[in-house]
Amino acid sequence: MPVRDVESVWRAGDRPHRFYFNRGANGIDGTLSSALGVAHRGQPTLLITGDLACLHDTNGWLITPQFQGCLTVLLINNQGGGIFEHLPIRQFDPPFETFFATPQQVDFRCLAAAYGVPYHYLQDWADVEAQLRHTPWPKIRLLEFRSDRHRNAQWRQQVLADLRG
Ligand SMILES: Cc1ncc(C[n+]2csc(CCOP(=O)(O)OP(=O)(O)O)c2C)c(N)n1
Ligand SMILES: [Mg+2]
């Protein structure tokens, strides 16, 4: 969802932000490595990623010793594919959870530690802002934010309905 959200609601502005995404190929594979590539010897970079996309490519962190730059990974962990909550199949469980949402129970704190990547659990939105505002950013880190994909999908539908009036 993060890339869709940026496409949908990011306000145009004159600040020099540059956006990159793998959307053309539509794959969730390689997301972390792409961000590492963008950040290497480049500008401080923020990767906003889902949990499944991140897990697809955690070995990208193996490059950490050679990496030069600043990459913060903001992980939105909603325990599976939030995008699928918006499909009609959502109403049929089973098989929805097992075969579409595919929830996972990975402990990202332990996973980050395995790669030597500093980890921080984000308590709330104020914590998100505080972590991102505080500069300079470290070379590499993982910030985990938990969300509930089902409630999130319901909230989105409500907001869209309200906007339609
Ligand atoms: C290589 C690859 N495998 C499977 C898919 C199908 N797919 C699209 S989105 C998605 C789930 C993404 O989940 P997550 O990264 O947690 O993001 P969320 O939708 O929860 O924000 C999957 C499996 C894909 N696009 N690419
Ligand atoms: Mg997810």
Can you walk me through this structure?
The chain has 165 residues and is an alpha/beta fold. It has one domain: 3-Layer(aba) Sandwich (Rossmann fold). It is 38% helix and 14% strand. It has helices at 2-9, 31-39, 51-56, 96-101, 108-115, 125-133, 149-164, and strands spanning 45-50, 71-77, 119-121, 140-146. The protein has a four-stranded parallel sheet. Strand 1, helix 3 (51-56) and strand 2 form a beta-alpha-beta unit. It is globular, with a radius of gyration of 17 Å. The relative contact order is 0.15. The model has no long low-confidence stretch (mean pLDDT 94). The structure holds thiamine diphosphate (TPP) and magnesium ion. Residues 50-52, 78, 80-82 line the site of magnesium ion (MG).
Helix and strand topology:
Blueprint: H1 2-9, H2 31-39, E1 45-50, H3 51-56, E2 71-77, H4 96-101, H5 108-115, E3 119-121, H6 125-133, E4 140-146, H7 149-164
Parallel strand pairs: 1-2, 2-4, 3-4
The chain binds thiamine diphosphate and magnesium ion.
Magnesium ion is lined by residues 50-52, 78, 80-82.
Question: Can you tag this structure with a few keywords?
Answer:
single chain, 165 residues, alpha/beta, Rossmann fold, four-stranded parallel sheet, 7 helices, 4 strands, globular, binds thiamine diphosphate, binds magnesium ion
Brief summary:
The chain has 165 residues and is α/β, with parallel strands linked by helices. The chain has seven helices and four strands, in the order H-H-E-H-E-H-H-E-H-E-H.
